[in-house]
Amino acid sequence: MMTTFGRVWRTGFKNIFRNAWLSSAATAIMVVTILVLTFFAFSTVFVRTQLAQVRSKIDLSLFINDDATQNQIQTLQSKIGTIPNVTSVNFVSKTDALDRLKNSSSEGAKLAQSAQDIGNPLPASFEVKLSNIDNISATNSSIKGLTEASIVTDSSYDNRDDSRKGVVENIIKISNSVSKIGAVLSILFLVISLLIIFNTIRMAIFTRREEVEIMKLVGATKWFIRGPFLVEGALYGILAAIISLAVTIPLTRTISSFLTDKLGAGPTLQYFSSHFLLLSGGMFAVGILIGVISSWLALIRYLKL
Fold it and tell me: Which of 45, 65, 166, 252 has the fewest C-beta atoms lying within 10 Å of its C-beta?
């Protein structure tokens, strides 16, 4: 059994070199396919990560009247915390607001000094974190409906310019576009890979037709005859995955600084780094699957046993 298995693999390996040009074309297009799928996966994770980061930074700010007492502030904070969609409520005092402005930038420091000179007009506020930013309008209405909310003078939602919401919507649009383009390109190259490997195996069957007839006459099993062709297809996938990794790893290391500094892709790179074995296994799985399916279709169509 092991001897037969080994012979099937050896024959499949030799078949690759019998049609060098077709083998090269099949491997090359499969490399492109795997790289496109990898880029698609990276883009999807990157856009979703960026979207999650932006959405997490969007909260609801409630500005408090300067005359509000400490008891009123604590009571309202407790009430807000019980409202659905609210994950946390953080109180920012007038002093805290001034310190934040001072530490924000050099220009902020100048503004903070001017504000301090005139008695700090910055209001105290509540920063309300939401579990679902899409329900911010309903949450804002629920808070304003509280009896204790009489000390609230304004909210970031009521005074919004929709710029932050627009950022989220733009990222969602980009995410959807990336998904659609990636899916179309992936399907296109998958089909091309299937067709090229299909024709490569067809040519291999034609080239070895006399050898196949002899094996049939001496009683070779169907598995023994078909096996080398399936192995050939699988080897195309394995070779393509190795080349894809050889391209991906140094390329990622070369542009990692740019991706991190300019695009903020650090979390995405960290994700793929921590899941490197899964990514590599996926590359090999895709390559082998394409090769075996293409070979099997060619065998069904052209190899009559």
Answer: 166
